[in-house]
Specification:
The structure holds three protein chains of three kinds. Chain A is mainly alpha-helical. Chain A has a single domain, classed as Orthogonal Bundle (Helix Hairpins). Helix content of chain A is 77%, strand content 0%. Chain A starts with a helix and ends in a 13-residue tail after the last helix. The mean pLDDT of chain A is 88. Chain C is mostly helical. Classes of the chains: A mainly alpha, B mainly alpha, C mainly alpha.
Amino acid sequence: MLTPTHVMLFSLVLFGIGIVGVLTRRNAILVLMSIELMFNAANLNFVAFSWAMPEIAGQVFAVFTICVAAGEVAIGLAILIALVRNRENIHIDEVNLLKW
Amino acid sequence: MLELIWLIPVLPLAGALLNGLWGWRLSRRSVGLVACGAVLLSLVVSAGAVWELSRLPVEARHFRTEVFGWMPLGPLQAGAGEGLRVAWGFALDPLSAVMILVVCGVGFLIHVYSVGYMAHEEGVGRFFTYLNLFMAMMLMLVLGSNLLVMFVGWEGVGLCSYLLIGFFYDRPFDARTGLTCADAGRKAFLVNRVGDLGFLIGVLYLGLSFGTVEFGELAEAVHGSGGVSAGLLTGVGILLFVGACGKSAQIPLYVWLPDAMAGPTPVSALIHAATMVTAGVYMVCRMTWLYAAAPEAMAVVAGVGAATAFLAATMGIAATDIKKVLAYSTVSQLGYMFAAFGVGSGVGAMFHLTTHAFFKALLFLGAGSVIHGMSGEQDIRRMGGLRRKMPTTYWTFLLGVLAIAGIPGFAGFFSKDEILWGAWSSGHLGVWLLLLLTAGLTALYMTRLLWLVFFGEFRGSEEQRHHVHESPRVMTVPLMVLGILSVVGGWMGIPKVLTGGADWNGFASWLAPVLGHHGGGEAAAAGSGHGAALELGLMLVAVVVALAGITGAAAVYRRLGVAERVAKGLGPVYALVRNLYWVDELYDALLIRPFYALCRLARTIDERVVDGMVHATRNVTLGLSYLSNTHDLWIVDGAVNLTGATVRGASHVFRRLQTGSVQSYATVMVFGAFLLMVLYTLGR
Amino acid sequence: MDPQFVAFVLLALVGLFAALMMVTRTNLVHAALYLVVTFLVVAAMYVVLHAEFLAAVQVLVYAGGIMVLFLFVILLVDLPREMAAPRKPRNVHVATALILSAVVVGLLGYEVVVTRAAPSAGGASLFAEGGNLETVALALFRYYLLPFEVVSLLLLVAMVGAILLARAKA
């Protein structure tokens, strides 16, 4: 029997992988991709709850989340483009002008 | 007019105030007018008052007016009587009547003379202010109805004497010691002070013993209560006489008078010949009832007076400054007066005081005229032959010399004779002999003076010879008036023995209610045969002695060189006399130097101790402040720095968070989220 | 063993594998492709969970739109140079990330397990009338209209921002 617990655990694992990706990768694009992974994990969680309660609001919220994620990706990539233009590479560990 | 006697001292006081406050703005003439006018008015009031007094019957010739209650003093110890009440009053009786006439009369003449004498000097306003102030003080002294008012005047004349002696305060006076006239004034004041101390103690003793200081009340108390100890009275008498020694320049307090010649000559004439120095004589005469009850004191007075008379006369022989000769002469004549009083002849003393005022003032003013004519020269060795160039001065001076020498017919003869007879007839033969010898010396040195100044050849410089001139009338007229007085002044005291029994001695009878009948008159009345012949004989002796003195002087000084040989012949004696027996030096060594040493000691102690304490305080304060400063610096700064260092250290640690790396920020965020979750979990 | 559960497990395995691959690949394009796989797996899971509409949206937007965006940007990156000098993340960073992630996941997992949410009985009855799409639409335009409009505004802003940021310097 499939329980929400299984789904939630899975989404948590995905989420954790996403965290590792964010904190580890040097390439900014890969960081953003990891962030998308995390978004998806969260959406999965919402839908799991929507299925379990049952309550449609979960799915609605997931829709919204997807929209916001899209917007966020757009802007993130735009920043990346600006970054590439200025620095020829997108190694974010080298973007540390605010270092003390 | 008697009720107005308070005006007599007040008028010159007003003159002094006027000249003192506005004299610097007025012209010389106005200043002189104010000053002379004040004295003249006083003279007029005095004359009027004396006239009124003379109209009263003999027993009633005393007048007292109280101006205001001055000092009501409580008793010294609780329950010891009623204490002392001192009022400010003036009194007039025959004795003070004589004094005020002499003071105002001679004073007025000298004021007039001064206008001429000071014509070329600066500070005329100041001079006449002081002169008028002196007159006011002297008249207060004379007219005071009690010892304390007299004392105010006593002190006042001392003050004015100081002010006037040191009038030319910066002028050098003694070339040998480099002292100025101001120093001479100070000497006079200080020596006077010594006398005044004795006087004051005597007054206080008297006042506290009898509960009053009024003359009339005191006289009654002394007469009445026989229980008063003679010892007290003798002591008081001597103490008061000490005051008189200071004021009237007797041994041992005479040393200021010769140096007082530093002042302008009119000052010497008025103060140090005619009036202030006679205050002592007046004072003892005023207290005659006290001395009558204390014969030892009278003996002291007589002895000191006679000794002074003789000693001063010896000093006059060798003096070479015209004014100093006259100064010693004054001291000597004052000794005469005290000696007279001491042997019981108060009348003789007052008589001589009066005649002396006339001829001594004359002599001083004449000397002033000579100095004026000689452009300031005062050394008689540089004068000579002035009788042709300054005739008026010469003739008046001659009259003065004849008077003081005791030539019959002149004023001095009668008064001196009165004294000599008083000494003989009361048995004081030692005094008589001293006074006789003094008379001879007086004649000698006065003739010497006359000769050296007016006769012989002129020994001064060429410039002086050109400038020598007779003095203006404003100066010669007073000389003439005084000259006349020196002649006729004695005629009011002609003894009975010369008048064949008729009483022409108005002076004695005038003063009788106050001073008693003098010995001479009684003796003449008692044993007319012996007494008269003796008196005449003694008179003759005196005249012979005087003439001897005159001829002796003439012989020595007629030709140059004789004097020097005599001086060399007398050797050490001459040196002794010439240096005035080194009395000043003695005082200096015995009194003044030790005093200065004491002062220096006190100063050193004061400096060391006081400065020491101040420095110690300073050092302690410095030390404490240094400590406080350091401590403050270290601790306060330490605290502040500690705070800063702590912040810096903390910031060193915490700023490592700002890596600038996004991923590290993300790490931290995740970590933070984790912590929140932990908290949430724990909360459940 | 009901089919739902089996399907889910299979999908989960694939998804995990794809995700792991994605975060470890050096090659950008490989990583992007693995991400697409992940998206598709998630879409499939939506279907399993009776959220068909959402699955469609997921494929459209994520796999279709967002990945295309990613690919465009990857194009801008100088790939050869990127590939030539790959740098592995430092060990300490990896360790920190792993630990942190493990801790977070562990904690939350523990929570989840302890809570034990159970599916409702009428799990499917919710979507009986009209199907999933109609239900979502009704909820969206009836009760959640305001957020809907706001999101559209947000997208507008994002669009404008993206254009602005990515503009070439004139």
